[in-house]
Amino acid sequence: MGGSGAASFLKVVAKNFDVLAGPVVTLVYPLYASIRAIETKSPVDDQQWLTYWVLYSMITLFELTFAKLIEWLPFWSYAKLIFTCWLVIPYFSGAAYVYEHYVRPYLVTRQKSVNIWYVPRKKDVFSKPDDILTAAEKYIEENGPDAFEKMINKSRETTTRSSNYTFYNDNYRYDDDYRY
């Protein structure tokens, strides 16, 4: 009877492997590795684990959104486990791969545009206020005056084509429209 008990236990474990291994692969090990990454100076492991948590959040949101559809897919838990293993296992570094090939190219091309959601913040009474002029000065320091001028011209081209917004300019003259 002892042998059949062990066999039935292994059968239950094998049948529910995804349920048992899922939390370990998706939460326990990444949590441990993330804490270790915080304690090191290397940005490589930080990138791996920050990216992993972003992807894990996206997977979770996907599952919450499409829960009714997913319950009809018997292989979903196994596919998720395999994908998560690929993201987590250091040999593969799947999360870093996804970041380098999908997330980073998307972000880098978007960062070159002008941030219209700028909200100025004051640090304290004695420091220089963090306003749009300070941001422009910082941009010029980092990228040079030519890059700043190019950005402004690109912004003008974009805003003149936009009919959804009205821009007020104290120095506007009618013949300004014909310079560009």
TrEMBL record:
Question: What keywords would UniProt list here?
Answer: Membrane, Transmembrane, Transmembrane helix
Q: How does the record classify its membrane topology? A: Multi-pass membrane protein
Grouped into one coarse class, the protein's main location is membrane
Q: Where in the cell is it found?
A: Membrane
Q: Which domain of life is it from?
A: Eukaryota
Pfam family of the protein (one): TB2_DP1_HVA22
Q: Where are the transmembrane segments?
A: 20-38, 50-70, 76-99
What is one term from the GO cellular component aspect held by the record? membrane
Per the similarity annotation, which family is this?
Belongs to the DP1 family.
Name recorded for this polypeptide: HVA22-like protein
Task: State the organism named in the record.
Answer: Handroanthus impetiginosus
Taxonomic lineage: Eukaryota, Viridiplantae, Streptophyta, Embryophyta, Tracheophyta
